[in-house]
Amino acid sequence: MAKLCRCVKLNDRFDAQVFTFTLPKSIVREFSPDVFSTEIVYGYHKWNVSFIKSERHLGAYLKLLTSTPGLSCRVDYAFTMLNKDHFTRNESFMEKNCDFNDDKLTHGRKTFIGIQDLSNRNFMQDSGEFLVELEMRSIVSTFEYDLAVPKEAYSRHYINEKLETPYFSFGVFDWSVSLFSPNGAHYTEGKTAVQLNRHTSFHHLCNVKYEIALGEEDIYQTGQITQTLDTSGVGDPLIVAATIFELSQGRMVVPVKVTMTSVVLVSEVTMDALGQSRNRAHCYDRDKQAWMLEGDTSGKHLSFRLYYTDISHVPRKFTRFVCWNVSIIPSAGSIVGSNTSKAVKALDGPFTKYYVQQDLDEGFVMHTDIPVETVS
After folding, report:
1. Which residue range or ranges hold the MATH domain (predicted)?
2. Where are the domains of the chain?
3. What is the architecture of the domain spanning 149-265?
4. CATH fold match for the domains 3-141 and 149-265
């Protein structure tokens, strides 16, 4: 197995992330099996890597695991075999703007590196294993579907029903897009409402960023939208100044294109930061692992400490990588920093940490620029 030993977010404008795998030394043997990794997550999709041997070469491949018909993921990726002596002797290849879709889930190169080169060029580490880095960056996830408009919809007696795309997968959720006429108007009159729907995991709120294009040659574009979907999974509809038939341009189908950027689960908790007995709040992540957030007003500025309550549940010999952020939402009449209308994020976020199994978590401190005297 290709074991994942490190995961690093570069926090650059390309949203790059680097995964480091260890390959067993047995891979250079003549009859050793091919090597596969467990799933990894990048760009809100699940992936895995495989290393396939031929007679003279070792191939490296990247596979998309969360595919649905109509979904396309374009991404830049690069594999690098790390040389023990110096980085200038590394062996690597890069592919740009690769399209992973339902017809082609796997991309890679079967001549990544020669089998003999692994030993002769000193790629084996002191542990006897080989280190391979996978860098992924600049992902774009797009779902496209031609939404059929029934012929009966031309009739004045037709019942105004929603037109909805099939489900597609993004961020371990299932989604769809609906078109309907707002306020009960007929399809041939007025305007069109467009709505993004989430169909799974209703235990949390979620912040989602996306954009929608409708019609041939994307005649209507929403631009990027940021919405918070409640536990019902339904977002606020967007009103388009065109009827469904104008969008279809007489073709009886409306081309729908959704570009998904991000989706983040949100746990909303309430606490009394000034009360010593009420300055703690409990919440759960999407894997139903328990956490506790504690407010601290002992300094000049408000700070928080996050505890992983279920840290003892991390499997032995495994590491859990977690990324999160904290926003403080002002209540009516309170003063939070210099802005009373917008949420204030903790300094230096988002935060990441590796967790291994232990009895208790010592907590992770997060600071804000909110003076303690303004908290009430």
Report:
1. 42-128
2. 3-141, 149-265, 280-374
3. Sandwich (2.60)
4. yes
- Per-residue exposure over 68-82, b if at least 16 CB sit within 10 Å of its own CB, e if not: eebbbbbbbbbbbbb
What whole-number distance in Å separates Cα of residue 376 and Cα of residue 152?
A: 60
Whole-model pTM?
0.84
- Please give the C-alpha separations between residue 98 and each of 21, 38, 74, 141, 335, in angstroms, as whole numbers: 22, 21, 5, 12, 49
Mean pLDDT by 10 residues, the chain (376 residues): 91 94 90 91 96 93 95 97 94 97 96 92 92 97 92 62 90 91 64 89 86 88 89 84 80 92 90 79 91 92 95 92 89 43 83 93 95 83
Domain 3-141 fold is 2.60.210
3-state secondary structure of 28: helix
Q: Which of 376, 323, 325, 374 lies closest to 347 in space, CA to CA?
A: 325
Say if CB 54 and CB 108 are below 8 A apart. Answer: no
For residues 76 and 98, the answer to whether their CB atoms sit within 8 Å is yes
